[in-house]
Write a structure and sequence with these properties.
Distance between the termini: 36 Å
Number of strands: 4
Helix content: 55-70%
Structural class: mainly alpha
Order of helices and strands: HEEEEHHHHHHHHHHHHHHHH
Number of helices: 17
Strand order of the largest sheet: 1-2-3-4
Strand content: 5-15%
Radius of gyration: 26 Å
Shape: globular
Length: 410
Amino acid sequence: MSRAVTLPQTFERRGTSVKMYAPRFQHMRVREYIREEDRNLEAVIPNFSGIRTNEFTVVPWKQLPDLASFKDRDTHVIEAILNTSKTPEIEPIAVRGYCMRADSIYHPDEYMRQVARERTQKEKEDIEMVRMSCLAQLTRECGIARGDAFMAKANTTTLLDLMTGDKGGDNFDVSILIDRVMQFAAERSGTTVEEIRDWLEPLVGMIAPFGTVVSGGRERSHGFLYRQHVRLIEFRKSLHETRSMVREEAGESIDLINKVCDQIIAYVNQRIVKLDEHLGNFASVFSAFDTSLEQLRKLRRDVSYGLDGWDDLIDVWDDAVEGKDMVGGGEGLERGIRHILDYLPMIPDRELNPDGNVMEGADYERARVRLVAEMHSWSDGSIDTTLRDRVARAKESRVDDTESKWKAEG
């Protein structure tokens, strides 16, 4: 059977990465399998035997506790996922939430528990900032429509200053401004102020992972999806800068990894542009609320799946870079590259080309296998001369066959 046939064709079939600390379960994923009326969860465990890379073991999720003695933190995550009942509850954002809650309570390291709590608090603050940015966008739109120069120039900082009394004096009543903005949104969308207020919170919750609403050349901030995207861009830059420090075959691996990074960065950028276009006229979002919410949910699903699985790989790379100046640091860089190459989360073909037949994943797999086949040993740097000679003879044979064909046709 062709290797390309076994590649997952959708994000759901690839599954969502689940951060686990048990060694054999790192880079594990959970996916849903529905047969008739039964909903089953599967654990997809890469290299479970520890012998062959790029092979997967698939078991029912409920059987995981039988495979190892998990500590409290991992057990809590397994149970949280087992207790889900709907597809969105095992998408990347939801699973990330289960892992963060487990880390904040059950992680054996107090420092890591504190880090998880700080991240949770940071994301609560992100939601508040996104809510303010939504109100600021509505204020700008209202100001432009009503010819109010002050409102037309409003931003998140402006509203925060007014609410805290830093600007405008204690006599300024922000509630009057908000009421005016809500009335404008209701008139623009043909609904009531009460519905606008009710609908704002679900929109804020859907937008929050992306960060603040931006317009007019302003830069986005806040939002963990935004931070993950920036981190991937910085990782790609770091890989490129490190290429000259490793052997040529490792450099070719970097090129292949960066090709995948470029694909994902472009995929996410396209959806961020759609998001900004959709929210650029924020008042109109309320006129077709259900449709807008579904469009936002689709964008959030795509971006979260596109970035899923990268954080752990970038952690591996950061550790390798941190130790690159130590004795044997170059070997550590190459081990990191090899690890990333083995677990690289490709975007499935049908997600990239829902109406086409371009097999990006198959092309990548062929390139990766060919690349690995010609590498030096990663353990001691020695050359597998038998394998090298066999690959070289195969290449020469292909060249000779091609030349013979050309001569015959000529």
